[in-house]
Design brief:
Shape: elongated
Strand order of the largest sheet: 1-3-8-5
Structural class: mainly beta
Low-confidence stretches: 3-9
Largest sheet: 4 strands, mixed
Helix content: under 10%
Number of domains: 1
Number of helices: 0
Length: 120
């Protein structure tokens, strides 16, 4: 963990970042610092029900090959929480799935906010 148990001060600096994905096949990248990240993701295109997003490469000097990275999506979010993979020193890759209840594809540039915590 990035803190010692019992210190009483678990406040971490929060970083805000944004990225736009071209479509379910489009990849994107974003750079940010800190161990607590609020990431705004906008879909610029359409995404079918059950489709996976393109990969988002998150570059962050706090990420180590042994880091544990947690993510969650805000409520009323049409996307799933991120799958985190390819973790290495300085970066990881993220992707999500369209879990809307409509059989129609997501359109209209939906945006979702994800919270990401990096533990070392």
């Amino acid at each position: 963990m990035g803190y010692q148990q019992g210190t009483g001060n678990l406040q971490r600096t929060k970083t805000t970042a944004a990225v736009t994905l071209g479509s379910s096949n489009g990849d994107a990248s974003v750079s940010c610092e800190g161990t607590r990240v609020s990431l705004s993701v906008t879909l610029n295109g359409s995404m079918a029900l059950g489709a996976a997003s393109g990969n988002i490469t998150l570059s962050n000097s706090s990420i180590k090959a042994t880091s544990v990275i947690e993510s969650c999506a805000q409520s009323n979010n049409p996307f799933s929480a991120f799958d985190v993979f390819a973790v290495q020193d300085g970066s990881c890759k993220l992707s999500f799935v369209n879990y809307t209840l409509s059989p129609d594809p997501l359109t209209g540039n939906p945006t979702a906010i994800f919270s990401i915590m990096i533990y070392n």
